[in-house]
Amino acid sequence: MATFNGSAEGLFNPNDVYAVPITDTTPDSESVFFATNDHYFRNFKPGRFAEMGLRLPTSSVLYHSVETGFQRVIKNMVGANGIAGSRMLNTGSKQDNKLYIASIFAGQIHIYNFPASPKAVKSKEGFKFLHKVQTDFVMDNLAIDADENWLYMAGHGQPYFLFQHFEEPEKVSSPSVSYRLSLKDLNGKFYGSHGEIGEVRIQKVLLDKMVRHP
Fold this sequence. Notes:
Blueprint: E1 14-19, E2 33-37, H1 45-53, E3 59-65, E4 69-77, E5 80-86, E6 98-103, E7 108-113, E8 128-134, E9 138-144, E10 150-156, H2 162-167, E11 176-182, E12 202-207
Antiparallel strand pairs: 1-2, 2-3, 3-4, 5-6, 6-7, 7-8, 9-10, 10-11, 11-12
């Protein structure tokens, strides 16, 4: 058990964490993880509402290891929220280390490669944006299945009722939606050695019955 304070580096509103699996290049003592910073404003409610309503690019993602401390690796995101990752432990190749971040107010999943070595995370080739996948809902709660074939995400089917739902959850419902993104399409010709990309498969798994509120 350990406690980490990244407020001095701008981690004001940590939302979700992806703990990087241990390898020979990232031993347990490194405490390697990524954390999403979902808002710039912490207690100023008008500012937080503006961030959501105007889709302001005020959120970020920070990386931590014992060797590097906290480092901001992604900035200017619109609602960085849920985060997940995958690593091929038997290779250590940066092409196998992928990070998935929900930009919830933009309705997007952002995908990155990250390096195996902590000291390489700030290098020019160490941390690389790959692709973004557009969805049609406000999603969160990213999770990868055990076989690493699909990235699952869940969110709100009617986001314009969210604030009412937060105030009166017993009276105002918020229908849920679940999608999954094929991770098999993130290899081969889609993310090849020369940087080529293509379309990826995204499927709707679950849709609550939509409701109408007065």
